User: Fold this.
Amino acid sequence: MNNYYDYAASTPVSKYVLDSMNPWESEVFANPSAAHTDGKKAFNVIEETRTIIADKIGAMPSEIIFTSGASEANNMALKGVAFQFLDDKCHIITSSIEHKCILNTCSFLERVGFEITYISPNEHGEISPDEVKKAIRENTKLISIHHVNNELGTIQPIADIGAIAFDYDILFHTDAAQSFCKLDIDVDDMDIDMLSLSGHKIYGPKGIGALYIRDVRNSDIVPLIHGGGQELGLRGGTSPTPLIVGLGSAVEHFPEDVSEQQTLFTQVIKNYDFVKNSSLSTVPTIWNITFTSDDEVKRFNIEQNWLTSQGSACNAISNMPSHVLNAIGLSDEEARRTYRISLPPFKCS
Ligand SMILES: Cc1ncc(COP(=O)(O)O)c(C=O)c1O
Assistant:
């Protein structure tokens, strides 16, 4: 699919990943909670995968909770912390350019009495650690700022924000759906207490992701899905062995090389007039560009039959101008001339 330029929305499942999943679909398909030998095999491969994920971010395997993806992990992080304060409520800091799964969780929490501060970005989509610091209140219990913006590709200064959270003894969560495997992450060096990740952004299957929770056994995170005690009692439901194995394989085989498509793209895009909507600190695989005129948009669409996004895939459902583009100061008219072109991801730091 060489006209597909929407890899920030989803990536294809790689051959390695498919091959790794197959035996766990129909050969060793036992419930990983079962006590017999096949159950134990499934259990063991899940624990091996937990180690693969943990090693990637400098965590302990016991701190990884498998979820259906980053949306669920983000819900678990925010609600799981907030629900500890159902009586006296608490204050949470986030940004106005988070993914909708964070923003809509925050609106829900506001409706039931929690206080949320939304930090606005500068014109390049950067969240200032100083602004985060200024927003801290006595009852702030959680700061949640994403690592890489899914529309702009901007890399946020999460280590600086983590250091502030650490100084004030506030939990720090980051949505790393767009950075996991692509950028180096060390949860200790970056003072990250919770981190969300997703399989289908790294050539893994859809429907699998994870939440890292620091020292989870001693945390008071409230479960979202009560069930049979799986995932340390935080996420009930039979563990999806093939998806979990696929996630691990995706991590192990994540490419380190720049793709041919990336090289071709940089040559082709030079032929158009546009403004790039992000700072120098961006991942090279996400380009958010505003064409300078409607005619230039038309020319681009006629000459390049590329599958791109305007905003994120979730904005496409609502057909509204992207909240991220509005937050960095683009008018609705400019937003309509704006495209997110995203290339095959690779390890870029
Ligand atoms: C930054 C960010 N957070 C969360 C998500 C949601 O991830 P998932 O599809 O795994 O629920 C996405 C994917 O679109 C994303 O880009």
